[in-house]
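New to this. Please check both lines:
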Amino acid sequence: MTTNHPGDGSGNQPYPRPYVEPSANPTWIGRVQPANYQPAPGNPSHLPQGGWAGSQLPPARRAPGTLPLLIAGGILAMGSLLLVVPFLLGNTGVTGFVIGFIASLIPLSIVLLAVRLIDRWEPEPKRLLWFAFTWGAAVSIAGTLLIQPLFAGAAPTSSEEAFTYFMATVQAPIVEEFTKSLGLLVLILAARKYFDGPVDGVVFAFTIAAGFAFTENILYFGREIASSTDPGTDLVRIFILRGVMSPFAHALFTGTTGLIMGFAARKWHTGYAVLAFFVGLLPAMFLHNRWNSMGQDFLVDYFVIQVPIFLISALGIVFLRLAEGKLTRQRLLEYARAGWFTSAEVEMLATSRGSRQAVRWAASRGRKAQMRAFIKGATALAFTRQRILSGRDVTVHQQDERDYLRAIPALRTAVLQ
């Protein structure tokens, strides 16, 4: 009898090692353990080839716990608004609130546009992004208002300056990052099917932070209108500071927590998620503290420290996207070897350049929407396979995989008609 596994020279046959394709781990994210690896399912002719008509993807099934999460989140948000809205109106007045609300839409749009660009490769469900935004805009603000008095009681009272400095550099970083990042912990525990990597962590963190900064900007902008003797000038000044120079400040703080929790999500375990939450709070609080500590030398610190941090963060996100693209390409290549795609289709579906060219070609034939659906379906399939190979909820994701595989031929046909 022969074996594919060499012996150890003693005449005993070793235990067979799980087979892993040599290129199965193309990047440092999403690495597959040999025990979890399994070949992509083949493309037998008896599988339905047109289970869904036109360019529609199979109906998405909500992961267990997502609906209760959305209901609980909605209740929390409504309850939080009962505390947050009176607080804002009490500090800004109606006129300040309205003007602050409108002015805050500008930095909010900038951050959400960045979220859309980061999330374009594998978009998160809109309902979870809404949960993240409302958590940041309402729940985390309410939590901050409730916890803040505890720190106010411990703050130094020797002078108003000392009190203000303590609240800005100690209370704000600790309380605000905790309440914002608590939303990330809820998402990773209750919607883990959609929180499975560092890019997901950054997307959810940026969205939560965008909501928090939106409400906070209403307060700051509106308060200038309500309390200043020269509201126009003061509003422009604070808008430049918060809306132009630092629209991504909160996003970068909380983004570090989301990044660390995203890496923990690759190796799913509840303990890892909770540990990553507390570990991720440390750099977020530190960055927040450094920002709030800038004083008379603000411009020097801003250009010497904060701008480089922003640029490094932007480059990091670009590298994450590139790594995610390589991972997508590898997973689709595995399906190609199983007969589901051609190698040319993989290059088209799994690269930014290929997908752009494909969309332009399809648009010239009146099939732009169908091509986008084909790309979206293939990307979702690749990430579903990655979830399977991670060993998390394998049975659930294998059913998703079968659904996507049944849909792929119909999506392709819709493009070529």
